[in-house]
């Protein structure tokens, strides 16, 4: 089979996995690197930030996959309703200088008889996994497949889906994938709401209510010096102002999503339903005396 044509500087889209593999193999053969930005489409400024960061890498072709992965949706979730504005997405990819678009069909990734999946371990059943059983097995399976098809040197994921990011990093380590996973801070609206493809489901009133997620996280993080109880109590107090917002969980964890330390870096995570729309968000928190250590200043290590 001949390698599909690939010229630098324009967007090429492929549906069959074998074609993408051929192109990325050929690119590696001439010394290029490949950076992958996996998405489910309905591209917004959050996705575009991942692409922007990937584009900064020297000698690297940026590939973006668009695939609404059925395996990570449970019964009664929004798989059918999930927005799929493909033409608009392709315009975004062109505008942002993405050179490789991978648009597989479900039957390409899950041919009949495919039964083997990636098991996320215990963390896969906590937080999001407790509310969406099987979700992370679906995510890790499709990400493993994308990595095996594209063989990316780098892969970019948003911190908005923090547990997903932690689990993907863990999968790469535990299963020896040869890909460097890079997490990108959450892009927000001016009022703090984390950008999400699901924000389009919100009515104007719900959109107002939804601000409380980031407001509660920010308020909680602000009192990190006073310890975990204060962080959670402050966040809960902020949430109480919007009783229409139903919280699935509000938890303070370590940065690896193990138990939070008394002093040091942690993560405050929330999932809540606003009407029938389920939103998630999280922020970094510095706890206790660690607040006074310069290495924990907000932009340390940037
Ligand atoms: N606001 C954001 N800031 C940074 N990265 C983001 C943001 N929103 C999504 N991403 C990242 O983009 C990648 C693709 O996510 P996805 O296509 O599911 O979009 P999404 O907006 O998170 O959709 P949904 O909210 O429906 O899950 C993921 O790595 C995700 O973490
Ligand atoms: C990583 C991902 C593309 C896998 O389907 C999805 O979970 C997402 O968009 O965050
Ligand atoms: N951004 C995570 C994908 C999902 O909610 O299924």
Automatic annotation (TrEMBL):
SUPFAM superfamilies: Nucleotidylyl transferase
Binding site for ATP: 40-47, 158-161, 187, 195-198
Catalysed reactions listed for this entry: (R)-pantoate + beta-alanine + ATP = (R)-pantothenate + AMP + diphosphate + H(+)
Amino-acid positions noted as binding (R)-pantoate in the UniProt annotation, renumbered to this chain: 72, 164
Keywords attached to this entry: ATP-binding, Cytoplasm, Ligase, Nucleotide-binding, Pantothenate biosynthesis
GO biological process: pantothenate biosynthetic process
Signal peptide: none
PANTHER family, A to Z: CYTIDYLATE KINASE/PANTOATE-BETA-ALANINE LIGASE, PANTOATE--BETA-ALANINE LIGASE
Family membership: Belongs to the pantothenate synthetase family.
Protein name (record): Pantothenate synthetase
Gene source species: Amycolatopsis keratiniphila subsp. keratiniphila
Lineage, uppermost ranks: Bacteria, Bacillati, Actinomycetota, Actinomycetes, Pseudonocardiales
């Amino acid at each position: 089979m001949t390698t599909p044509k690939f010229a630098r500087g324009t967007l090429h889209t492929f549906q069959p996995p074998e074609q993408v593999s051929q192109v990325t193999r050929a690119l590696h053969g001439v010394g290029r690197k490949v950076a992958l930005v996996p998405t489910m489409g309905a591209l917004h400024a959050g996705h575009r930030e991942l692409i922007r960061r990937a584009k900064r890498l020297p000698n690297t072709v940026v590939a973006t996959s668009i695939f609404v992965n059925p395996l990570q949706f449970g019964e009664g979730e929004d798989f059918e309703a999930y927005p799929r504005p493909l033409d608009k997405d392709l315009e975004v990819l062109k505008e942002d200088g993405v050179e490789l678009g991978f648009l597989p069909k479900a039957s390409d990734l899950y041919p009949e008889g495919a039964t083997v999946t990636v098991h996320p371990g215990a963390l896969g059943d906590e937080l999001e996994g407790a509310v969406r059983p099987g979700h992370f097995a679906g995510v890790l399976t499709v990400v493993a497949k994308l990595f095996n098809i594209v063989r990316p040197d780098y892969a970019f994921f948003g911190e908005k889906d923090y547990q997903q990011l932690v689990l993907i990093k863990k999968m790469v380590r535990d299963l020896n994938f040869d890909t460097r996973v890079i997490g990108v801070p959450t892009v927000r609206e001016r009022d703090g709401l984390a950008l999400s493809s699901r924000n389009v489901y919100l009515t104007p009133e719900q959109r107002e209510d939804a601000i409380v997620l980031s407001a509660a996280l920010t308020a909680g993080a602000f009192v990190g010096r006073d310890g975990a109880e204060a962080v959670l109590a402050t966040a809960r107090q902020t949430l109480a102002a919007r009783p229409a917002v139903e919280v699935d969980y509000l938890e303070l964890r370590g940065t690896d999503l193990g138990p939070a330390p008394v002093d040091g870096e942690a993560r405050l995570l929330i999932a809540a339903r606003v009407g029938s729309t389920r939103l998630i968000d999280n922020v970094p928190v510095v706890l206790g005396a660690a607040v006074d250590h310069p290495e924990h200043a907000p932009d340390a290590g940037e």
